[in-house]
Amino acid sequence: MPKPSDRISGIVPSGKDGWEIHFAAMNRKQAGENIIMLSVGDHDFDSPSETVEACIAALRAGHHHYTQLPGIPRLREAMAKISTQCTGVATTSNEIIATPGGQAALYAAVQAVLDPGQHAIVVAPYYATYPGTFRAAGADFTVVETRAEDGFQPRAEDILKAVRPSTRAILINTPNNPTGAVYSRQCLEDIAKICREQDLWLLSDEVYWTLGGGEHVSPRALPGMVERTLVINSMSKSHGMTGWRIGWLTAPADLVTLLISLNLVTTYGLPDFISRAAVEAFDNAYGVKEIAERYASRRNLFLDEVRGLNNVTVRGSEGGMYVMLDIRAIEPDCEKFAWALLEAEKVAVMPGVSFGDAAAGHLRVSLCQPEEILKEAAGRLRRFVGAYE
Ligand code: PLP
Hints:
This protein is an alpha/beta fold. It contains 13 helices and 13 strands. The chain has helices at residues 6-10, 20-30, 49-60, 73-87, 102-113, 130-136, 156-162, 185-198, 253-265, 272-284, 288-307, 334-345, 371-387, and strands at residues 36-37, 96-99, 119-124, 140-145, 167-173, 201-205, 229-234, 247-250, 313-315, 322-326, 347-348, 350-351, 362-366. The N and C termini lie far apart (51 Å). Belongs to the class-I pyridoxal-phosphate-dependent aminotransferase family. GO terms for molecular function: L-aspartate:2-oxoglutarate aminotransferase activity; pyridoxal phosphate binding.
């Protein structure tokens, strides 16, 4: 074939991507081994049945056609209402653009604020698609590491040091994937101050906002931030709808107007029947409370099980769908440890180093399994740690 573009070839450079252990475990599970998969971030349960019924009803009612580019009006209204709750800032429909999932919202955000060659700062550890999303825009980025000892809360001075003349944006994610850290109000205020003083955009990935345990603090609510914050959001985690691909961006209305042209050349609007089911799911909060409670109780159970483990320290792990175990006192090479755990006890977790240097020496444990399985996994981990040499 003729040569593909450098841009497409550069989004995910070939080579190791850190997911080998997950795929090896999945293959072994499919071959019949009793492997406990704690390596991915997708719910182990189906979408709420009411949401499914709403979608079937919308299909039966003939909602099969093209829709408005930024989302059908009722969907944007529902998203604006949820954004008002999520960010604590009164939000209107013209500050909302619907996208097929949070990932597409992230893509749109990066396209909207960065030109090729411009620079962004990404706080690590981060969600695996972030670097590729910047590369797809031809943008440059610097990774600012956090420290396990700080519970993976970023330090403002580290972010400030990374600012260059070409820097246009900072990307943060709280509650965080992979660490489960929930950034403190003070930390967000410090970041907001940098954005104001350096005239930067803040891209705030808040897809786990309902799974944070306590009150969610969005940097959009901080002084002077409405005009420079883009909030990435999604129904995937909060409403149990990962496979439906429905998300949105909350941004200044003038930027949303520009973003509509991006939807024109990419998605051309969302599916009508999914949009209508989403409106019902938003209006009735289908699944939201139950899902939040389920993850909180899984997190508490798993942390209770592992807290007494010798030489294992819990870091971050305050919200989202993951907990982070610091195993450096047992084994600094978390990849080696994770492979050995899979071999000996058939538990698949992600080595922290797959998410950047800050999480080296850690294990990311996904809570996407029922409590009895998490309990069994913790038991296997205890046995493995006890025997580890
Ligand atoms: N942002 C973070 C931090 C995530 O963990 C994920 C998915 O795991 C996404 C965005 C993308 O979510 P969606 O399924 O809505 O595309």
